[in-house]
Design brief:
Blueprint lengths: L1 E9 L3 E8 L2 E5 L3 H11 L4 H12 L7 E4 L2 E7 L11 E5 L3 E5 L2 E4 L4 E3 L4 H25 L9 H18 L1
Antiparallel strand pairs: 1-2, 1-6, 2-3, 4-5, 5-6, 7-8, 8-9
Protein name: ComK protein
Length: 172
């Protein structure tokens, strides 16, 4: 399981990142976007499609959480100040591995602290975006589990009505 991908300046090299996956921390000499693309490729996911689906679900186009799977929702957080233009300053932390978010740092479930440099308000706003993604996962999981051989229950009818309502809102 991917725990985090954090940008890191490397001496005499430039941009790089630290990736912690399955408890093992590795350093890469490539930018975060390329590492995320490689991770998606390993998991047979299309990075552009992951971003498009996340954007559509949360209704925001920039600095969005990325939904790799229901166990891996990558939470963007500003880790450092840019030194040059087009510098990658946002890291991604698996939201399910966050223990608590405090002013100035995030405490992970293994006790590790990751420091960030943005307002608490911006971070809390993004946690709400993650909740929207989680709700979308739950509703899509429920819709997949219909058994067409059994009569429809009240819950089945409710889910269908909710889907119709969501589609109607999208069309307006």
């Amino acid at each position: 399981m991917l725990l985090y991908v954090i940008p890191q300046y490397m001496k005499n090299i430039g941009d790089g990142c630290i990736v912690k996956e399955d408890g093992v921390e590795k350093m890469y000499e490539i930018k975060i976007n390329q590492v995320l693309k490689n991770i998606c490729r390993e998991r047979m996911l299309d990075f552009k499609e992951v971003k498009r689906k996340s954007r559509k679900t949360v209704g925001q186009s920039n600095i969005i959480p990325l939904l790799f799977s229901k166990d891996e929702i990558m939470f963007p957080i500003k880790i450092r100040k840019p030194k040059v233009s087009r510098d990658e300053v946002y890291g991604y932390i698996n939201f399910n591995f966050i223990d608590k978010i405090e002013e100035g740092h995030i405490v992970l479930k293994d006790g590790q602290k990751i420091y960030y440099i943005e307002s608490q308000r911006a971070v809390l706003k993004r946690t709400n975006l993650v909740r929207i993604l989680k709700r979308e996962i739950k509703s899509s999981d429920l819709c997949v589990n219909f058994d067409l051989k059994l009569p429809a229950t009240k819950e089945d009818v409710y889910l269908l009505l909710r889907e119709i309502y969501d589609i109607k809102k999208l069309l307006e």
